[in-house]
Specification:
The chain is about 65% helix and about 5% strand. It is mostly helical. It is elongated and about 120 Å long.
Length: about 1000
């Protein structure tokens, strides 16, 4: 029992381990009984005893058959030996014990011993067949065996013998050279005597029909003799295909049903839904019974395409009784393997000897289609380069479906069902790590496990590498591995294990790119933005947008760049985290600091160009903005029109990237560009209430302008931060920023900047009830704004001057000033400011009880703000219409409209609007006689106006509170509010 517990849980079994083992044994017994098998499991203290007969345990049968094969081989009975070895190997399923992936340390050692025994028997089987002169039939199998076991020297020696005897001496020598390179790279040793002596024999021409003398193991191979009959170990299925007969040769039959799929992994996880859909696609009948079925799995390197395809192939094995073909279409250095070589391997597996092998690719493809025409086989083509490479390898009938994996989408293969495989979700990644490392280890350090997943970018290959390293280091906490991965400079070094690494896969793809694509790939890592639009490729490469976007799409096809197309949005591109790390490595290696600085400035300047143009299109010009002297590179007008068809939506899409661009400009010391970009972004921040973004970008820009002694840039940032404090109604803080801004603008001679700062200082005075000071400030700012021809800012000022007239009860003067404001806004074409003035005009009409006129202008304002996407303006227009409905006696409708306005104002965090809507809700409730509800709304308004230092509206609210208290006969409250109002 103790060994069983250790085998299942290792060093940390749960308290219920023994009970769970007993349950498992009961399930096994029940399963055997259901299958009609005898109950061979007996309970024997201190555990269990299994009693089996001589032929009931496959391990015993394997060992006896292997022993019989060795005895026959030593006696020179090679046909008998090969048959015995095949019996032994036929007991295996897959290429490793228990399907591989053994997590239990108790089972790992015996499993490794059994795997070694199997490989030894495979080598002995090959020796026997080489002795029978069947070298040509062995080449394809030996190639796969050597690829799976590159450091096993005897297999490599056998492949060299088989190739040399097939007249392929050059390839045999290349097998030696590649093996020597791998032994030196992996182990730091030269090949053993067996391989060295064999190489010498091939070079000297002594390995023609006889083995080299004194070469261990391979010396057992007898001189080759022609195979005059089919291999006795393999059933005869078909003979004499037309192509083979035309070559004047007798066709040997395939050694067995080809089962070329690599072994499936035991810890396959996270793809159940995808696996089911792929099965359905492969098994689904096509509209035409004869139409070929092709399914492609596409995705970036390391995402798990091959693992999924192999697992799928094994799960469908019983559906294809004539076998599964498998071929990797890329070599170890990313070079494509020619279709003619793949076809040769396939044909040899199907029984075509070298003497009957067609010489041209067309003939080989025809012969392949002919051989599989009546068979039910699954063909798996792994890591395809392009459509042309695949087309030669396709069968001609629907009974042999084709499963392809590729980084490319293979859109040119007609009738292909394509499935894009993405990185794991967090849940899938946790499942994979739990299967490899054990759920207890994962859940005991769940925060570190989640961090590992994030640092691996949810990439299957990276997660498997991390898990493999942690399996061999059970004493490491997961947090230690996460800490090692956190350093981006070392991350790809850490993501390497057992000769497999993320960097190697990325390098393989990168090295196959044309030079312009390599350059763009490197430079994309300069963008710190998480995502970007396609136009950025143009300034990165310094070429036309159309040409640059073609290069970008090439990187998308190569699965180095991800693209996302959400409904109603332009495509957004991004680099996977690990891809970005590799891209940065390439950038550092190939481009110097000066080159990178020029490219970065060009990209950030193009962003400034687009932000500026978006502001113009949204506001009708450069009104209310000042700009710096940073360069604006040229950009094709059609691209600008495409990007800014909806400028406010463009702002929303690009917001995160633009904030990052401000930060990058500051980091690069581009102070002029930094403050200009930050200030131009205020359009977005103000309209949608992104106050945190406003503050962050401007504090960054203020710091870099101070560091570089850029006084105009400092003034611009202080002015804008003051405006931010105004919007937050932190009026004292606003004055503290706007005063120094005015002085700095005056010192550098910037009339426009000084006028805008004066305008905002006047607003602070107005809100705090200093109407005379406010009016004087507005009048001064108006003269200066007229000088610089900022008609939008003029309209702002005139609108606020009109409000002061209204607050003083000067309705006629207020209307006249608003008319002047509307005339100014007509010159600028700014519909948003026009809507603001219309709302003020509506309030003027309400003040003198002109309800129909008020309804008309509020309706116009509402239509305008909705058309330009101005949520703040919308809540003010709705508030005005609600008051109109209340005056018309529709209190219920008024209340509903005000609640709608409250929702919009709350979402926009427009606190003054929230306070004024609460005040209006209190008025409506009081008009309906709902005094309790009125008090609640008015109390909320008082709280907001008090925190905002909004003296005017606070006093108005206190007066209404007094009236409501008197109406509800609450004399004490009425007196208190009357006193607060007068104080």
């Amino acid at each position: 029992m103790g060994r069983l517990v250790d085998a299942v849980w290792g060093v940390s079994p749960p308290p219920t381990a023994r009970a769970q083992i007993q349950i498992c044994v009961s399930i096994v017994r029940a399963s055997m009984a259901k299958a009609g098998l005898p109950d061979v499991i007996q309970t024997r203290s201190p555990g269990y005893f299994v009693e089996v007969g001589d032929d009931e345990l496959d391990l015993h049968v394997f060992e006896r058959a292997a022993s019989a094969g060795r005895t026959a081989a030593e006696a020179g009975r090679f046909e008998e030996a090969a048959s015995a070895f095949e019996t032994a190997l036929g007991l295996w399923r897959g290429s490793s014990c228990f399907g591989g992936g053994i997590a239990s340390t108790v089972l790992q050692a015996p499993a490794a011993r059994l795997d070694e025994q199997r490989l030894t028997v495979v080598e002995q089987w090959v020796d026997a067949r080489l002795a029978l002169g069947l070298h040509q039939q062995l080449v394809a199998r030996l190639i796969d065996l050597v690829m799976q076991n590159p450091l096993r020297e005897h297999l490599r020696a056998q492949l060299m013998v088989a190739l040399s005897r097939s007249g392929r001496q050059a390839e045999a020598l290349e097998v030696y050279r590649r093996g020597r390179r791998e032994l030196i790279d992996e182990l730091g040793i030269e090949p053993g005597e067996e391989l060295r002596r064999l190489q010498e024999s091939i070079l000297s021409g002594r390995l023609d029909g006889a083995p080299p003398v004194n070469v261990p193991s391979v010396a057992r191979v007898l001189p080759a003799t022609p195979a005059t009959a089919a291999d006795p170990a393999e059933p005869a299925v078909r003979t004499g295909t037309p192509a083979a007969q035309s070559a004047g040769a007798t066709v040997a039959e395939p050694p067995a049903v080809p089962r070329l799929l690599p072994g499936a992994i035991a810890d396959f996880a996270g793809r159940d839904e995808l696996l089911a859909s792929l099965k359905e696609a492969l098994e689904r009948d096509t509209e035409s019974s004869y139409a070929l079925r092709i399914v492609s799995i596409t995705g970036r390197g390391g995402v798990g395409k091959t693992t999924l395809a192999v697992h799928l192939g094994h799960s469908l094995a019983n559906r294809f009784p004539d076998g599964q073909m498998f071929a990797k279409l890329r070599g170890p250095s990313a070079q494509p393997i020619l279709p003619t070589r793949i076809l040769e391997r396939f044909l040899r597996c199907l029984g075509i000897p070298g003497s009957a092998m067609p010489s041209t690719i067309e003939e080989r493809a025809e012969l392949f289609r002919n051989l599989v025409a009546d068979r039910r086989m699954l063909i798996v083509l792994d890591d395809a380069i392009d459509e042309e490479q695949v087309r030669w390898l396709l069968p001609g009938s629907s009974n042999c479906p084709v499963l392809i994996t590729s980084r490319s989408r293979l859109a040119g293969l007609e009738g292909t069902s394509s499935v894009q495989i993405d990185v794991f979700s967090t849940e899938q990644a946790l499942e994979l790590l739990s299967r490899i490392l054990g759920s207890e280890r994962i859940h005991s350090e769940l925060p570190s496990a989640l961090q590992l997943i994030k640092l691996c970018g949810n990439l299957a290959l990276a997660l498997r590498i991390v898990a493999a390293r942690l399996v061999t280091r059970p004493h490491w906490p997961l947090s230690k591995m996460a800490a090692r991965l956190r350093d981006e400079r070392q991350r790809l070094d850490e993501l390497t294990h057992g000769g497999v690494g993320v960097r190697a896969g990325l390098a393989m793809v990168y090295q196959g790119l044309p030079s312009d694509a390599q350059r763009l790939f490197r430079r994309l890592s300069m963008l710190e933005a998480a995502e970007f639009s396609s136009w950025v490729a143009a300034p990165l490469l310094d070429v036309a947008v159309g040409e640059a976007e073609d290069v970008l799409e090439f990187l998308v096809d190569a699965q180095l760049v991800d693209v996302e197309v959400a409904k109603g949005r332009r495509p957004r591109y991004r680099l996977h985290d690990l891809v970005r790390v590799y891209s940065q490595e390439c950038l550092a290696e190939h481009e110097n600091t000066a080159e990178r600085a020029v490219v970065l400035c060009r990209v950030l300047s193009t962003w400034l160009l687009l932000v500026e143009e978006a502001h113009r299109r949204a506001y009708g010009g450069d009104h209310t903005l000042i700009h710096g002297s940073a360069p604006r590179p040229a950009l094709d007008e059609s691209v600008i029109d495409r990007e800014l068809a909806d400028p406010l939506r463009w702002f929303e899409d690009e917001r995160a990237s633009l904030i990052t661009a401000v930060r990058q400009a500051a980091g690069a010391g581009l102070d002029e560009l930094c403050w200009d970009l930050a200030l131009t972004l205020v359009t977005l921040f103000e309209m949608y209430g992104y106050f945190d973004d406003w503050r962050t970008t401007h504090e960054i820009a203020l710091a870099v302008t101070r560091h570089n002694d850029n006084r105009r840039g400092q003034a611009a940032m202080l002015y804008s931060l003051g405006a931010l404090h105004m919007f937050e109604y932190k009026l004292d803080e606003a004055r503290g920023r706007l005063g120094p801004a005015c002085e700095l603008f005056r010192e550098v001679g910037d009339v426009h900047g000084e006028a805008l700062a004066l305008r905002n200082l006047a607003f602070v005075d107005r809100i705090q009830g200093r109407l005379d000071e406010a009016m004087a400030g507005y009048e001064k700012a108006l003269v200066m704004l007229s000088e610089v021809n900022d008609s939008t800012a003029e309209a702002h000022v005139l609108s606020n001057m009109a409000q002061i007239h209204l607050d003083r009860g000067l309705i006629a003067e207020g209307k006249q000033t608003m008319a002047a404001g509307l005339a100014a806004v007509e010159r600028s074409g700014n519909r948003r400011v026009r809507a603001q003035i219309l709302c003020r005009l509506g309030e003027a009409h309400l003040q003198i009880d002109e309800v129909p006129e008020a309804e008309y202008v509020f309706t116009q304002a509402l239509e305008t703000v909705r058309s330009v996407g101005d949520p703040v303006g919308e809540c003010y227009a709705l508030r005005g219409l609600a008051i109109v409905r209340s005056r018309q006696g529709s209190h219920g409708t008024a209340y509903e409209i005000l609640e709608q306005a409250m929702g919009i104002a709350s979402q926009a965090r427009e606190y003054l609007a929230i306070g004024r809507i609460q005040l209006s809700l209190g008025e409506v409730a009081a008009d309906r006689g709902s005094y309790g509800s009125a008090k609640e709304h008015l109390a909320a308004a008082l709280d907001i106006f008090g925190r905002m230092q909004a003296t005017k509206w606070r006093e108005q609210t206190l007066r209404l509170m007094n009236e409501v208290s008197e109406a509800s006969e609450d004399a004490a409250a009425a007196a208190a509010y009357a006193q607060a109002s007068s104080g």
